[in-house]
Each structure stands twice: as C-alpha cells, then as structure tokens.
Design brief:
alpha/beta; Rossmann fold; 6-stranded mixed beta sheet; 6 helices; 18% strand
Length: 202
C-alpha cells in the first residue's frame, strides 16, 4: 500500500494579492496562513507518522511544512518535483481579481501555453514521477494548487483537464488530499480534515 497525503500550503501573499509566482522566495504565509498551517498540523497529529515527508522548495510551502514538522516530529525533505507550476511571462504578475486572473490563465492554456506557462502534460508528468517513486506506507507532501490537481488527474482521468473549473476540483489553502497510488484511487480531495476510518488513522 502506497498512499500520499498532499497538503496545500496555507494562505500566502500570492493568494492575498492575487499574484502568480513560482519564485522560491518573496511570498511568505500571511498571518491567516500561519494559523491554517497550525490547524492542519494538529489534524495530522491524529494519524500515524508518515514514512516520508516532502515539501516544495517554495517559501510558502516550506513555512507550512516547518509548522507541521514541529507537530509531528518528522523533518521534511525538499522535493523539486512538487514545486509550484512555472508561470512563464505571467511570473510575478498581479491581477485586480481572481476572475481576471483565471481568464488570463485560461487564455494561456487555450493558446497552447504560448507565453511560457508550464504545460499540463509536463506538470502531470513530474507529479506522476514523484508518486511512482514513493515507498510503501504513507507519505506526506506539502505542495500547491496546480501540482496537487495534476497529481489527482494522474490518478483519475475524470480530472484530466487543465481548464477544469476550481469548483469541480476544489483544493483550498491548507486542505488535505489523499491518494491511493497503487489502486489509483482518490480517497479524499481538498478537505479540511482527514476522514475517519482510513488505514493510516491512529
């Protein structure tokens, strides 16, 4: 049995200011994001310790992982394959609203990523490679919206659409997504807690 628990980082300044960025530094967690990370850390204390713990090398993910690490007493390893999606010429671009941001991104996808945003197949490929290399048991990984969505799509083709509306693949900040890799099954997606009765519950 190989299971991966993906946690999306807490709210960061990118979320608050509606900025697209895959830069390693510069956009830390907000106060709300720190609080969200502490809450999810408490929830993760209720399951067995993961065999492996990974974090994206992006600042907002590392901060979330550090808070969780203090709660579960497992040190995270940085993992490039679960880093934020590359945004090409959209890097560090801010938007007036989430709706305008989504429109720009949708246009980029429809134009076959003409402005350099990391393509969906590439993103899926690195997330699939990460999951296929995980050992038996439970692994924990702190990542980002698009990479987690791509991991879900690699498991279930129903979600294999880069233009899928957020409402159909909800993965909010600090949410928990659990995937059964061997059986290609989504145990839960984008939830604020961990369902009881799972095989790795204490």
């Amino acid at each position: 049995m190989a299971i991966v628990i993906f946690v999306r980082h807490g709210q960061s300044e990118t979320n608050l200011n509606k900025v697209l960025s895959s830069k390693t530094d510069g956009y830390p967690l907000t106060e709300l994001g720190i609080s969200q990370a502490r809450e999810v850390a408490q929830k993760l204390q209720k399951i067995q310790k993961p065999a492996c713990f990974f974090s994206s090398p992006i600042q907002r993910a590392i901060q979330t992982a550090q808070i969780i690490s203090e709660a579960i007493a497992v040190r995270p390893k940085l993992e490039e394959r679960i880093r934020e999606r590359g945004f090409g010429s959209f890097e560090d671009m801010g938007f007036e609203s989430k709706e305008i941001m989504r429109r720009f991104v949708a246009d980029e996808i429809r134009s076959d990523y003409s402005r350099g945003m990391e393509g969906w197949e590439t993103l899926k490929g690195r997330m699939r490679g990460f999951m296929e290399g995980l050992p038996e048991g439970v692994s924990l990984a702190i990542s980002h919206y698009d990479p987690i969505r791509a991991a879900v799509a690699a498991i279930d083709k129903k979600y294999d659409d880069d233009l899928m509306p957020n409402a159909q693949a909800p993965i909010p900040n600090s949410s928990i997504t659990v995937l059964d890799i061997a059986n290609r099954k989504i145990i839960q997606m984008g939830k604020g807690t961990i369902d009881g009765g799972l095989p790795f519950s204490k």
